[in-house]
Amino acid sequence: MKIAISGKGGVGKTLLAAYLSSMFARDGYSVLAIDADPDANLAATLGFPNPESIVPISDMKDLVEERTGTGGGKPTPYFKLNPKVDDIPEKYAVKYNGLRLMRMGRVKQGGSGCYCGENTLVRSLLAHLLLASNEVIILDTAAGIEHLSRGTAKAVDKLIIVVEPGRRSIETAREISKLAQDIGITNIAIAGNKVRSEAEKEYITSHLTGYEFLGFIPFDQAIVDADLGSSSVLDASPKVAGEVKHIYQTLLAAQPGDISK
Ligand SMILES: Nc1ncnc2c1ncn2[C@@H]1O[C@H](COP(=O)(O)OP(=O)(O)O)[C@@H](O)[C@H]1O
Ligand SMILES: [Mg+2]
């Protein structure tokens, strides 16, 4: 199963990605959590030791150069568009608590004729993971979906757009949804987060009509407090965990039973 999580900054993408990754892992699934946000904090949220020491793939200069034939973003006549990537997860994924994690790093925006090695390597690696791997992949993205393409869209079983009660997050959700449909992603669902009342839930459903809603995660101050302190965010709130569990079960139920354990 391949799940991509998107939405405006700060809505709770990483929190949801971390919960889902750990729930799949706890049930014995083989999980690869991918942090595709340059401001990465998925590893920290999952409790990985020394999360800041995990080097993103795009920062591995030697690897980028070796695989794509470029160094420091300079194009060369020998640039490879299809670099070898299949051995990278085994070598560079970091393991903790029964799951594996990779940081992708920054993907520079195209349009300037940039065929940077970093972009090519990250995109090829993601395509390989989404298309050729049989494990559960949870992709925590930045606010956009620039890591996905027409080629990888068909492998995404579910694009979850996280929204909080608020106009800007709803607008961002609509934009993401449009971009996703443009590249051929059809399985899009909304997860509400930081919901404090029925009225706030109603606000979200009434502003995003026609979408599938996976669930509505309550706001819980305990999450904020755990985040400020150094205790585990994932253990901080039974209320939040309970609703994410419901989302998890909905995702599992929608999937034919061929996920690798
Ligand atoms: N349901 C919630 N209740 C309280 N705080 C939350 C909740 N969900 C997320 N947060 C807090 O909101 C902030 C942003 O969450 P995060 O998952 O990092 O968002 P994103 O990855 O979308 O930028 C974090 O400090 C997180 O602890
Ligand atoms: Mg995040």
Description of the molecule:
- The protein has about 260 residues and is an alpha/beta fold.
- The chain has one domain (about 1-255): Rossmann fold (3-Layer(aba) Sandwich), CATH 3.40.50.300.
- Helix content is about 40%, strand content about 20%.
- The chain has ten helices and eight strands.
- It has helices spanning about 15-25, 40-45, 60-70, 90, 115-130, 150-155, 165-180, 200-205, 220-230, 240-255, and strands spanning about 1-5, 30-35, 95, 100-105, 135-140, 160-165, 190-195, 210-220.
- Strands 3-4-2-5-1-6-7-8 form an eight-stranded mixed sheet, sandwiched between helices.
- A hairpin with a 2-residue loop joins strand 3 and strand 4 (about 100-105).
- The model has no long low-confidence stretch (mean pLDDT about 90).
- Bound molecules: adenosine-5'-diphosphate and magnesium ion.
- Adenosine-5'-diphosphate binds near residues 9, 11, 13, 193 and 223.
- Magnesium ion binds near residues 37 and 140.
Secondary-structure blueprint:
Layout: E1 2-6, H1 13-26, E2 31-36, H2 42-45, H3 61-68, H4 88-92, E3 94-96, E4 99-103, H5 117-132, E5 136-141, H6 150-153, E6 158-163, H7 167-182, E7 188-195, H8 198-207, E8 212-218, H9 221-228, H10 238-253
Parallel strand pairs: 1-5, 1-6, 2-4, 2-5, 6-7, 7-8
Antiparallel strand pairs: 3-4
The site of adenosine-5'-diphosphate (ADP) has 19 residues, from helix 1, strand 7 and helix 9.
